[in-house]
Amino acid sequence: MRFLDVDGLGAVSRVGLGTWQFGSREWGYGDAYASGEARAIVRRARELGITLFDTAEVYGFGRSERILGEALGEERSAVVVASKVFPVAPFPPVVRNRLAGSARRLGLDRVPLYQVHQPNPVVPDSVTMPGMRQLLDEGRIGAVGVSNYSLARWQAADAALGRPVVSNQVHFSLAAPSALEDLVPFAEREGRMVMAYSPLAQGLLGGRYGVANRPGGVRAANPLFGTENLRRIEPVLGVLREVAAAHDVTPAQVALAWLVSLPRVVVIPGASSVAQVEANAAAAEVDLRPDEQAALTAAARAFRPVSAVRTLVDRVRERLPVRQ
Ligand SMILES: NC(=O)c1ccc[n+]([C@@H]2O[C@H](COP(=O)([O-])OP(=O)(O)OC[C@H]3O[C@@H](n4cnc5c(N)ncnc54)[C@H](OP(=O)(O)O)[C@@H]3O)[C@@H](O)[C@H]2O)c1
Asked: Is the pLDDT of residue 324 over 70?
C-alpha cells in the first residue's frame, strides 16, 4: 500500500474504501451483503493496509456508519474514518448534534475527518465553519473536509475555518476528469488531499457493463450508463484495456492507478465483494509509465458525455414500441 501524509490525519492509504454500498437500498446489494460481505470487505481492507474508510450520515440513513464501526471493531480509533454531515440547516448547534449521532453510530469519541457533504446554496461557509472550528478545538474531530466543492468555495471554506480545510471529496475518474484542471494543482500546491469518489465511474470503468448489460439500482439513473455515453466511453475503455493487458492487471485497476499516481489524490472505491477490495488495494502498486498516464489522460479529456436530459430522452425513446 502507498500512503499520503495529510495534516491532522497522518498517513492516509492512497486506496481507501467507500461504504455508501453498506446498508443502502440504492445499490441493491441486499441484506446478506449488509450483514455479511460488508464486514468481510472491511476486515480484508484492513489486512491489505487500507487505513481510509469513507462513510456519511445519509448512507442507508446511518446504517453504513453502524456497519463500518462494528466491522472495524477495536481498530476503529486507529484508522482514518471519514464521515459527512448532510448540510440541511448546517448551523453550528445542528452540526454538533449530527456529529454526535455519527460518532455514536461509528462507536468513536472523535471522528478523524468530518466533511461537509455538499455546498449549501443558501447558507455560506462563514456560518458553518466556525462550528467546525469549535469541534476541532475540542478534539471531537481530527480535521475538516468538504465534498463537491468548487475551488473557489474550497478557498472560501478555508478562510471561514481560519485554517486549512484538508480535503475535498469530488467526483473524479477517467470518465469525469475535471478536477485535473484546478483542484489537483491546488491540492499539490497547498499540501491538501483530493478524495476521488466514484473513481470507477460506479463500475463502468471495470469494462463489464454495456447496452445489453446495464446495472440497476442507483446506477440505472446515472447518465454514464445511457446508450450514447456507453458508446462514447469506448475509446477510454480501449486505452484502459490496452494498458491493463501490458501490466497483466484489470481495467478497473488501471483506472484507480491513474488517479493514485496524481499528486495528492486518494481514491475511495466501493466494493461489492472481497475479491474487488483485494484488486482495488493492489491497484496502489501498479506503476504506470508516463506515456501510459498521458494516453489515459488524453482519452479522459476527449470523452464528452451527453447530458442527463439527452440520456433520459433516449431512454424514453428506446422504450417506445417500434412502429412496423
Ligand atoms: N461525496 C459524495 O457526494 C459521494 C458521492 C458518491 C460516492 N461517494 C463515496 O465514494 C465511494 C465510491 O463511489 P461509488 O461507490 O459511487 O463508485 P465506484 O467506487 O466508482 O464504484 C463502486 C462499484 O464498482 C464496482 N467495482 C468495485 N471494484 C471493482 C473492481 N475491482 N472491478 C470491477 N468493478 C468493481 C462495484 O459494483 P458492481 O460489482 O456491482 O459492478 C462497486 O460497488 C462511495 O462508496 C462513497 O463512500 C461520495
From this structure: no
